[in-house]
Design a protein that fits this description.
110 residues; alpha+beta; two-stranded antiparallel ribbon; 24% strand; elongated
């Protein structure tokens, strides 16, 4: 699987930086052929790996795309290390906030 398409976007999957850059170049070329514009401000790179954290340098239309460390997708926090620690802490904080609100206690935790 190389790409996941959504109603308002697309996720591109590649095993290497070179492979991802090739996919981005093709997307840009086809977009130009159909007079479509890619919104660079809405595009970013999410690298997920259980190995050493490195920076991925991908560009489109000679503009470097931002690499992010984590993002929320369908209510789940996805991090670059492919671990669930952040998601678990987030769920605990949410449950704690709900429980305290039910008891009428004001909670301002993160």
């Amino acid at each position: 699987m190389k790409a996941l398409r959504f109603a308002d976007g697309q996720a591109m999957l590649a095993g290497t930086q070179k492979g991802l850059q090739k996919m981005m170049d093709r997307l840009h070329k086809i977009s130009d052929e159909y007079n479509m514009k890619i919104h660079i401000k809405k595009k970013n790179i999410k690298r997920i790996s259980n190995g050493k954290e490195t920076t991925v340098n991908i560009s489109t239309d000679e503009k470097e795309l931002e690499q992010i460390g984590k993002f929320c997708y369908l209510g789940k926090m996805i991090t670059s290390d492919a671990k669930c620690n952040v998601e678990i802490k987030r769920k605990i904080a949410t449950r704690k906030r709900c429980l305290l609100q039910k008891k009428g206690i004001d909670y301002h935790g993160c």
